[in-house]
Amino acid sequence: MMLAGAGVASGLMVGTVPAARAPAVQMQMMPPATGMQAAPGVDMARADGGPPLVDSSILVQGGSLRTWSYRSPSVEQVQVVLSTEGRPLDADIELWQGPDNTPCKMRVYVENGQLRPFSAVVETPRGPNTVAIRNIGQIEFPLAANVVADNVDSPSAECLDTRMTIQGGALRTYPFDPSVDSVQVLLKTDGRPLNARIELLQGPNNNKQVIELYTEDGLDRPFFCILETPGSGNVVRVVNTAPVEFPMTAGVVPNSINQQMSYDAGPRLGDVAQSVRRFGGSDLHTFEI
Question: From which domain of life does this come (predicted)?
Fold first, then answer.
């Protein structure tokens, strides 16, 4: 009898072991669940209708999507800033207004997101609006995205006054001096759709930054961006990719100038003359000033 009782007791002990292990398995599942609560916190901060903080950059991994929603109709434009830690930047930016309505979208490629961060103004009239940024690069190329609604950049008076018409299918180039650190680009139409490609070149067929743009109404939603142009030999090329029935106006002017470089850059005339005498006067035509 004692052996049978011992067997029953041992059987009860064996039966209680799984019951003791089941809560332990549930406790191990809790840390991942609590870690996932950080994402709803970010969504709540973006969905309250107010502008985000200036330093509220969000890391967007390769292949992922982030959205910024603005419910207030008083927010008429936002500024999108994208950057990396020196790696290439490849992203899709879309403006969502209502179901299945994308009035503005652009494809952005930058060779070095730290040297040339992307900065553009997206018009958001008649809210609510949502700005969606998708990192279409590989997982090894994350980017930092920031969307703000206060202290948005605006084109200068020179940029508004120097706009020139670019017919559909045509292009126009704008070379800049090495002292120009950044350039303003403003594209607008008379109310027709806007299809354009903006390229920043530094050397023959060397694209440092490319923006492919579509806007359903170039008057209600003009495009404005600031391109960083460090170094020399920078040329901005604007192509109207729309048919000939859809002309647009483009204003491309310097935004910031390095005064110190403007005084020091470029060869002096005496140095060029000395080089000409060294190699012979017949080679004068090979030197450009």
Answer: Eukaryota
Residue 180 and residue 149 share a domain = no
Question: What residue type is assigned to position 124 of the chain?
Answer: T
Does some domain include residue 26? no
Per-residue confidence (pLDDT) for residue 213, from 0 to 100? 97
Q: What's the CATH code of the domain at 203?
A: 2.60.120.680
**What pLDDT score does 28 carry?**
36
pLDDT of 5 reads 45
pLDDT score, position 66: 96
Question: Across the beta sheet with 58-60, what order do the strands follow?
Answer: 58-60, 143-148, 77-83, 118-123, 223-228, 180-188, 248-257, 164-166
DSSP codes, 70-93? E--TT--EEEEEEE-SSS-EEEEE
Residue count (the chain): 289
Q: How many CB atoms lie within 10 A of CB 39?
A: 9
What is the tally of structural domains in the chain?
A: 2
Averaged pLDDT in 10-residue chunks for the chain of 289 residues: 43 43 39 32 39 66 94 92 95 94 96 96 91 95 94 94 95 95 96 97 92 96 96 95 96 91 48 42 43
Does residue 289 form part of some domain? no
Angstrom distance (rounded) from CA 188 to CA 1: 97
Are residues 226 and 169 located together in one domain of the fold? yes
Do 132 and 93 meet the contact criterion of CB atoms below 8 Å apart? yes
Q: What does the alpha-carbon distance between residue 161 and residue 158 come to, in Å, rounded to a whole number?
A: 5
Print the domain residue range for 95: 40-153
